[in-house]
Amino acid sequence: MKVQALPSVEGNFNLKNYEEAAESFDWSTVEQQFTWSETGKLNLAYEAIDRHVSGDRANKVALYYSDANRDEQYTFEDMKKYSNKAGNILRDAGVKKGDRVFIFMPRSPELYFAVLGAIKIGAIVGPLFEAFMEGAVRDRLEDSDAKVLVTTPALLERVPVGDLPNLESVFIIDESYEENGPYLNFLTRLNGANEDLDIEWVDREDGLILHYTSGSTGKPKGVLHVHNAMLQHYQTAKWVLDLQEDDIYWCTADPGWVTGTSYGIFGPWLVGATNVIRGGRFSPQDWYETLERYKVTVWYSAPTAFRMLMSAGDEVLKKYDLSSLRHLLSVGEPLNPEVVRWGMKVFDLRIHDTWWMTETGAQIICNYPCMEIRPGSMGKPIPGVKAAIIDDQGNELPPNRMGNLAIQKGWPSMMRTVWNNEEKYKSYFEIEGWYVSGDSAYMDEDGYFWFQGRIDDVIMTAGERVGPFEVESKLVEHPAVAEAGVIGKPDPVRGEIIKAFIALRDGYEVSDELQEDIRNFVKKGLAAHAAPREIEFRDKLPKTRSGKIMRRVLKAWELDLPTGDLSTMED
Ligand code: WTA
């Protein structure tokens, strides 16, 4: 079915004319809105919270938080107070500028106090997704030399504290927790802490946040972002999220992933919006209830979530009053035209696709309210950033030719390094002047970008990025597994699912129990979302002469495609 373009909509938007802005926009105009353009010293958490308290938003609700047990709201003044307190208790534990403070817990108000407090004292925050198991937690704390961790009693079991000599203190979120040695009680200390804090004024290039993310080879890598990224968080919160004074905004992403920080914390609060945070797991009823209850106006979610809502049926949706919604956005995977059509039907609104990555720190290619949408297209680069399709030599390709999706180096929220791995960082910039994303795409005659796929083997399952190498490494730790190769298999709801091909060691027999045991082994060792949903046993896996598993061949087997050049394959 041919998809009709959806016309721009009428309204009073933060971005009124895309073409005009794309032509004339200059990032220095964003900086001039903040006093740090004069002093040169800044702190993102101050700009996101305290600035609004000194202005006229002190009593405006900054955070509506709810989950199965809690139902709370905090004004910007409250957020200032609690983040100051958190900053003080972290500082008392010896945290200094540049130290890594990791936050490993499910969503809760304390998570947000801790993140903001750590940033206020100049620390680099490392958020960890709550589903990570011991192996994944260890890799990240070790690689980053984390000094302090904030976590809950339940998650503490997955932290190998004894093996981490540089981890000096662990804050536990539990009122009745008895302190001993390095284990400190976050809540009692927070209660007793001073409400005033000496903010650490930092340089724009000082470290802000370390997000670990997966590539196709090697362990997860720590992508470092700096305070300067706020320019782009702020400006895209206006242009793309289109946040305005009275908006109630809900971003469904967890802060363990970049969307949950850049657009669950930084963007919305930098522009002084009211932010809804909902804890707990996904269910269609719960999500619709959240939209209705808070009268959410701007909603940022992901294709997998929209597809799950779609498959729950429109009958469920009809029970709720969702008329407050005015602007919908999506990120993380290709947004199918079918989902856009569903959005038009049930919300009478266009879903705006946005493309970006952990490494880009903020949105790059987007659809804007003031612009026509071509369903299936990611949209156009934000003003002030140039994106292009280039070949492997760095030549820009003409319209409608598929190639590497690349961004001209130097946008404000660009990652500044890969922690402990400058070589990896440089590998993104091997083509002079360009950041090469690892995605392939083409651009049409009118400048719209269309996603085609990943060039490497990175898997996007339910919007979460999983490196096949990490899963394979865990699989071969299982006593029955001799060899393992992991691919993303297309799936109508999750985008892709993880499928593992496994060759067993001698003496092991294929069985349902063994399959289940292997799956649980990855669940417990890495994370539930990294466990293969499908496992296929083979006597032997295709390998190169140097012993590398050929995922390309596994994928061809799976999809019934030609296997291509096999000259490097062992006999
Ligand atoms: C994919 C998430 C298609 C892409 C913010 C990218 C997308 C990877 C889109 C980054 C989109 C993100 N359409 N694919 N609109 N947005 N992706 O680092 O392959 O978790 O390289 O960042 O997700 O995933 P990451």
Automatic annotation (TrEMBL):
UniProt-listed PROSITE patterns: AMP_BINDING (PS00455)
InterPro entries: AMP-bd_C, AMP-bd_C_sf, AMP-binding_CS, AMP-dep_synth/lig_dom, ANL_N_sf
UniProt xrefs under CDD domains: MACS_like_4
Database matches in SUPFAM superfamilies: Acetyl-CoA synthetase-like
BP GO annotations: acetyl-CoA biosynthetic process
Ranges of residues in domain AMP-binding enzyme C-terminal: 470-548
EC number(s) on file: 6.2.1.1
Domain of life: Bacteria
Cellular component terms per the entry's GO annotation: cytosol
Entry similarity comment: Belongs to the ATP-dependent AMP-binding enzyme family.
Protein name in UniProt: acetate--CoA ligase
Species this protein is from: Halalkalibacter nanhaiisediminis
